[in-house]
Structure formats: structure tokens, C-alpha cells
Amino acid sequence: MIKQEDYSCQLSEIDKKMAALFNERLELCKKISESKKEKGQPICHDFGKAIDKIEESIDSADSNIASYCSTFLHSVMEISASYQEMLLNGMKISYCDSKDPDSITIVKNNFPEAEPVKYDDYKSAYTSVENGECDCAILPLTNSLSGEIGSILDLMYQGSLSINSVLSAPEDTEGNQSRYAVFSRVLDKNPIADKQKPKGFIITFTVKNEAGALASTLNIIGAHGYNMKSLRSRPLKGLAWKYYFYMEAEGDINTKDGRDMLQELSALCADLKLIGSFIDE
């Protein structure tokens, strides 16, 4: 007959293994946090799908054990997220308060541990990331009523920053909703795959001044199965009657189709630039 002391010893050994694995988990969380800081991505607190996948692999006939297991997994993930947020403490995020008073709410809701840094105009907030004063910038991308902001489109085309996250603000009583882009110095070329979340990407480009040039470009995009959400033309600074194009599309560009499309576009477009790919939150 096994004595209670023997069970206690077995539990102690399991606890040691769990502690070692938890330490290993936090080390990985540290690396993820460093990557998110570099790319300007918020910490995820939506653990439901991850827990469901793990529970599918657990073989237990006892429903009580399954319930406690779910609670345990949620606690582990919440602690891990809290650890990542602690590591982001000191991260500086620029925003423009004078032109968009809602930006500070977006910053605090998505990066609660970060230090918000206020600027008077979009360009100053953007360049603060380029020159290293801030880690990332949160600027309005589009509004459901007024569309894109021209000066921010110009910053995307002319600047060096990338978009790895797009965040949505709550809809107001008039059905007005804004989406915000998180700009950082690094483009995420290997985003985490999640087939259940809508993906998007943004490119800017110029085309030759000849008949059918723009149509040929759009045909390539459609031929690879991407749905265009927005297309805007903007004047090129210092070049009369010359324009660049801003396009946002639905779909995952980090696929063979996406790579083939970009390669085909580069043969037609004089100035093609992938601004970013992201999960549309």
C-alpha cells in the first residue's frame, strides 16, 4: 500500500518539473516581449482559443479535473501576460493629442505599462520613432466617415516606419469608428498565423504614366485573390501632376501568393513599398 508520504514526494517532484517548465515559459515570454516592443505590438489577453486547443489534448474522464485544468491554464497565461507587460514598462509611445484626442485612450488601453509621449502634430510623432526618441507611434489610420488622413498617408510613403498592428476604437453613438496604426522601425516578416482572424496589408506604389498602367497593377492584385478595401492617389511633393497610390487590401500577404504578387508588381511599379501586414483587430 502506498503511503501518503509517497504521494507527497511524487507531488513534490511534479511541482519541481512544473516550476522548471514555468521558468522556461517566462524566458520565452521575455523574448516575445522584446519582439513585441521592437515591432510595436500589444500584449494579447485573449486566451480562449489557446486554452481550447490545449484542452483537446487532455485525456481526463473527470469533469472536475478538466474544469480545474482550464482555470490553471488561464492563470498561467494571465501571469505570463502580466510579466510581458512588466517588461514593456518604460516603452515610449508617441501620439498626437491636438489633432486626435482619442489617441491617448488607444495608447493606454493597448499598452498600459508604456509611457505615452504627446506631440503636437503627426509628423513629429512619426519622426520621434524614426530618430529613436520613442519605440513606436500610434496614429489614426482611417475613419468610417471621413476616410484616410492625407498627411499620414504621405508619412507612410516618404518615411521608413512599418505597420505591424492595427487597432480599432469603440464605435460611437453615431456609428463613427476609427482605426489606428502602430508604427515601428521593424517590419514583422513572420507574423503569428491565426486563420480565424482577418488579415490585411498596406502598400504604396507609383505606376508609369501610360494608358492601362494602373489597371494592370490592380489586375495583378485581384488575380492573386486579394480584396482591395481602399485605393487613394496622393500628389508627389515637388513633382507637378505626379502621384503615388496608397492601397489597403484584405488577405495574408505572407504567403507564396503574396510573395509572387509583390514580385509581379515590382516589375510594373517604379516605387513599390510594403508598409505593413497585420491582423485587423
Tell me the CATH architecture of the largest domain.
2-Layer Sandwich
Mean pLDDT: 85
Low-confidence spans: none
Report the C-alpha radius of gyration, rounded.
23 Å
Describe the largest sheet: 6 strands, mixed
The third-level CATH topology of the largest domain is: Alpha-Beta Plaits
Q: Kindly estimate the percentage of residues that lie in beta strands according to DSSP.
A: 15-25%
Number of domains: 3
How many helical elements? 8
Give helix % range: 40-55%
Shape: elongated
Look at the helices and sheets and give the structural class. alpha+beta
What is the number of beta strands?
10
General description of the model:
The strands form two sheets. Strands 1, 2, 3, 4, 5 and 6 form a six-stranded mixed β-sheet that branches. This protein has a four-stranded antiparallel β-sheet with strand order 8-9-7-10, covered by helices on one side. It folds into three domains: 17-87, no CATH class; 91-151 and 158-179, D-Maltodextrin-Binding Protein, domain 2 (3-Layer(aba) Sandwich), CATH 3.40.190; 187-281, Alpha-Beta Plaits. The chain has helices at 4-39, 48-56, 63-87, 103-110, 122-130, 150-158, 213-223, 256-268, and strands at 92-96, 115-119, 136-143, 147-148, 162-168, 178-184, 199-205, 227-235, 243-250, 273-279. The protein contains eight helices and ten strands. Helix content is 43%, strand content 23%. Helix 1 packs across helix 3 and helix 7 runs antiparallel to helix 8. The chain is an alpha+beta fold and 281 residues long.
